[in-house]
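Project standup — Tuesday

K.O.: blocked on the structure for the chain from last sprint. Re-posting the sequence here as requested.
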Amino acid sequence: MRRYSVQLCRALSENKSHDSMVFRDIQQALYELAYHVVRGNLKHDQASNVLGDVIEFREDMPSILADVFCILDIETSCLEEKSKRDHFTQLVLACLYLVSDTVLKERLDPETLESLGLIKQSQQFNQKSVKIKTKLFYKQQKFNLLREENEGYAKLIAELGQDLSGNITSDLILENIKSLIGCFNLDPNRVLDIILEVYECRPEYDDFFVPLIESYMYMCEPQTLCHILGFKFKFYQDPSGETPPSLYRVAAVLLQHNLIDLEDLYVHLLPGDNTILEEHKRELMEAKQIVRKLTMVVLSSEKTEEKEKEKEKEEEKTEKPPDNQKLGLLEALLKIGDWQHAQSIMDQMPPFYATSHKSIAVALCQLVHVTIEPLYRRVGVPKGAKGSPVSSLPNKRAPKQADSFEDLRKEVFNMLCYLGPHLSHDPILFAKVVRLGKAFMKEFQSDGSKQEDKDKMELLFSCLLSITDQVLLPSLSLMDCNACMSEELWGMFKTFPYQYRYRLYGQWKNETYNSHPLLVKVKAQTIDRAKYIMKRLTKENVKPSGRQIGKLSHSNPTILFDYILSQIQKYDNLITPVVDSLKYLTSLNYDVLAYCIIEALANPEKERMKHDDTTISSWLQSLASFCGAVFRKYPIELAGLLQYVANQLKAGKSFDLLILKEVVQKMAGIEITEEMTMEQLEAMTGGEQLKAEGGYFGQIRNTKKSSQRLKDALLDHDLALPLCLLMAQQRNGVIFQEGGEKHLKLVGKLYDQCHDTLVQFGGFLASNLSTEDYIKRVPSIDVLCNEFHTPHDAAFFLSRPMYAHHISSKYDELKKAEKGNKQQHKVHKYITACELVMAPVHEAVISLHLPKVWDDISPQFYATFWSLTMYDLAVPHSSYDREVNKLKVQMKAIDDNQEMPPNKKKKEKERCTALQDKLLEEEKKQLEHVQRVLQRLKLEKDNWLLAKSTKNETITKFLQLCIFPRCIFSAIDAVYCAHFVELVHQQKTPNFSTLLCYDRVFSDIIYTVASCTENEASRYGRFLCCMLETVTRWHSDRVIYEKECGNYPGFLTILRATGFDGGNKADQLDYENFRHVVHKWHYKLTKASVHCLETGEYTHIRNILIVLTKILPWYPKVLNLGQALERRVHKICQEEKEKRPDLYALAMGYSGQLKSRKPFMIPENEFHHKDPPARNAVPATVQNGPGGAAMPASLTVNTVRLEEGATEEADKLKEKSQGVVKVINKAVNAAPKVTTSNGNSASNSKIIKEKDEKEKSGKEKDKEKKDKTPTATPEMKALGKDGKEKPKEERANKDDKAREIKEKTPKSDKEKEKVKKEEKASKEEKSKTVVTIIESKSAAEKEREKEPSRERDVAKEMKSKENAKGGEKVPVAGSLKSPVPRSEASESEREQKRRKIDTHSSPSHSSTVKDNLNELKDSSAKHYINHTTPTLSKSKEREVEKKDLDKSRERSREREKKDDKDRKDRKRDHSNNEREVPQDSTKRRKEENGTTGSSKHSKSESPSDSPRLNEKEKEKNKSKSSGKEKGDSIKAEKMEKSSSGSKKESRHDKEKTEKKEKRDSTGGKEEKKHHKSSDKHR
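H.V.: unblocked you, prediction finished:
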């Protein structure tokens, strides 16, 4: 036991860690040892020995043992067991040598001491201790009241209050104080209190009193000083009491010198922290209530005003808050520069609670002033400014002054964060901080520092941004309209990238105002004031309202602009007054406005479409309009807005392009509108000056600065090209990305908006970027198309200015290198420059299309077309003259104006003169340029069109890849395309068929029109208008036609056939036939227009009305076509009035304009010559329907019907002609295929001419026919568009045509159609027929490939034989036939003709066409019934039709039985005819090459995509020719008097020949059927 206890105590004693734990463990061990003795388990002598061993282990072991004895003494005295008490007493007695008597007397009970024999009597001991305590604690030996020892205290105060300026030190005074305390028994605590009192009165002697107190405190307990100060503060805590600042200061100084602890003093101060927190919450609630009151709509305003006044009075009463000692101490700490303790106090309070008290804020501001002084003097003071230096704080414990920006971060930024919005109390400090920020940004943005420094600077920059967000902007909100501060802040802000600025504005607007009660109030007051101003803002009071807006905006721009923009979005009539009223804003405010606009645009809660989903929302349109106006008028940075638009485009949203469009329009003066007049368009083809003067609706002047700003923003942020590319990509993506469920009308609008903005923006870049900037940014054409996937039209649009820049700079280089002024030299240099620049482009464009494309058109031609503009092709002289004349008129008006002051007159006149000179100079420059370009084109043209396949294919490629994409790109491009086609024609370009090109353009516009958007339709209309203008000019006068088209290759038709002479023969389309062609085009336009109007489709109707409005100057010219249109448009007006108001408005507009054009329309016979109606026995009705004229891809022949009693000679001729026809058909099928266009006008004209010339001799006739007969051919060749590449929709059109033909042709035609319909009604038969046609087509094509030339020769022989047999040539041209007046004949005549017609019709043909027509019969009958003005009443017509139907059925049955017999006869006749051809007729046959030969050629050159289409076309032509025959039979009767029977027979033979050609052109298997049917006719 002994050993164990000793080891335990030793182990515990050796453990040096955790003294208190060890102490307790030793106590426990000793206690247990002693307790064993008490309980009798251990003898007291053994225990004393153990304790004797242990006592040496620690110095304080006797004391620990005494403590253990003390505890055991108390425990054993309470026990009843006497033995335990005795054991305890024995143990203590045994251990007396270990513990001193003194210690035991302190710890043990007097009775125990008595029992141990340490004292004699416990009672005496108790009495003695009481006496000692009374003497120590209750007898006054020191005096703490002045009156008790006035002399001592008087001397003390004298000592402390003496003049301290000499050599008196605190140590000396301290010795004196000690003497006084000892001499007069002064209370040391009271002495300390007096020292503090004197220090309060003499605050300037810090250096004396602080060491004195510090030294004095060595004699006192540490807490004494804190208790004395606490007692002093407690004294002033009465409700009426006010703590003196001197006490705060003394406490602050003592805290700063660490003589007291803040925690010890803080508990003595009032109010408590809980009270402060509650007060803060109450203030926040009050602020919110004020906001609620301001936003409430109150009707009885007078009552509320009274209530508010009462409340304000109450608030004033309770305004004086109770004394806050914590804030007083904080202020004192700040004043002496003790930032650490001040910070600790502020941390105990809610954020910004302390600084919301002005005195605290001002004190902290002063501390910041002092801290930043050296750095501010070094880098912040503006040039020329002196400023008043701030003296540093006298004490050395104040924060270290900042000498570098790094020092700012350590202390100053922290101080500013505690200040928060209350920096507003010190505008001078605000300015200083901002200037330091500016200086830092200057250093931050300069390069060349090390990586470590850069990291430090980055850290500093983030700190600066935080300070701006938490301190500067909120403080600005609390300043009272301080414009200077706003400008000062902008000085720093403008060095930040806009992303950082906008982030700061966003925080300021959306978060800062909710962080503090004062800011909450300010926000509410700003909105209230903004409402007041906006309610009263009008155009008349812009200036005063603007000043008020300005004042309000200096401090709280975000709140104000947010409200203003919300009003603009609702009421767009506010835009102009608001824009005008914003002229009193600061630069910072303008920047904030830009942010607010972007935030409003990006508002996710607002819908960008109206509820009908067809138009863009009005709020977005209003904002866009406001944007344009405000960015133009004021110097606001654009980068953020432009980037926003770019980001939206990246996200596939094009709504916001409206913004860009408005901004470019207003800032650059570049207007995009489809409503431009032709005068404006003409002006747009000139130079920049002319564009500015005459090209736009509004004369937007002074755009130089604003356009420069826009350009700089685009270039600085590299947004010029990305925006273009994004727009170009988005344009095609609109339908897919944004189409979806949206209304087609809206999708079209978005597409147009995207396209228009691209054109506008591209135009801006082209006219404003320097050559270097443009070339540096726009990549080559192949990169644009292949890598950036830019559509070709947009890519060339962007590249075009680059080529022009390149060429002009190269040209200037070459001019400088070789100085020669001759025009020839200049042109040569220009051409060289073009070659140098364009050669890489020619290479680049090859990759844009398949190699096959370049077989027909050369890359050079493609690049030339896309790289030129209207500026290069023509000089708008009239436009230049117009603008110059305007300026002259202006100058005259200035002279006449008496009121204008002379100096202003002079200025205005000088401006006008300068403009005039500029325009004239520009015109001269453009004229020279155009001449050079035309010379270049003249040299290039021979290599343009390669035509390796066919001319038809070449025209297709030209239209597909060049004309159509570009003519809908912009209004000027539409004009350019029309001019370019004319230019290519005028240049006599090889392989370019002008006729074919124009025919393709006019023939089938339905598909093009239907696929256009609204604006594209407008541009397409312009293109057609310009094309029609050219055609109308040629049509109007023979002289003009002969001059501009007469000998031009574009109007040539080349006969590709090998005759006996072995050469090619070329013929020219004469003037009259050209007029027929033009009429056919007009007819085609009418048909397409009527079709679109009848569809009921929104897009079709809208687009065709737009196109018709655009081409109104040149179409319709023919009265009956105009009337047809007028009826359809009138119908649209009636139908759409309630349903679709926009279509109704368009239709009404067009209808009105069309009526006004009516007096200028002419009858059809004046528009082109045709058989005069006067020669007919019965008056002809006007036939105006489409279908009477245009029969695509077929040749119709004017034939003269023979009477019933025709001679046998005529029959013989017929037989021979049948034989010839077969050969010709073979030749036609074998020749290269080109589908000819329709119309019978040429043959009409030929017959008229023939009639006029019948009196002449045979020789004269021969000569004239050599000149005139070939004129039909160009149309066959040129008008090949009808049959070429027609989509499915055209089939429906053709079916419609057939319906029209049925209604317009005489009754026999109708009967014939009905018979066909009934014969071939079933679908099975139709499909079989179609298959047959396809097979026959392919067979015919194979046959053609094998033997083209041989069959052509045979055809010639047959023709010459026929001519010889007939006795006289009859010119029968391939039909360019326009509608012929419908003749009325008796029913008997009609039946006779019908029989003849019926014998011609082949069952397979009729079934195909009729069945194809079945689907559209009802609708087309409705659509086109208006085109004819029937001569019989409808009821009569129906009766006649019924009779005719029965008869025609019988005839059709007979015809079918005879088919087989006819086929055999035809074969026999054909072989006989071949043998009978005389050799001497070949010469005459050659002369006739222009008639039948040309028709052969025209057929041979037009490939037709679908055999079914061909069948339809041919059937239509048959039905048309039957109608024609009816009219011709009457003519034939008239002509018998003046012409011989042989002529009639010959003409009849021709008719047979041509009809055979038509039928046999289907080729192969169908051929035999045709021959049999014609035999039957014979």
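K.O.: great, moving the ticket to review. Residues 1055-1066, 1172-1436, 1470-1548, 1550-1578 have pLDDT under 50 and may be disordered. Residues 327 and 354 are 7 Å apart (CA to CA).
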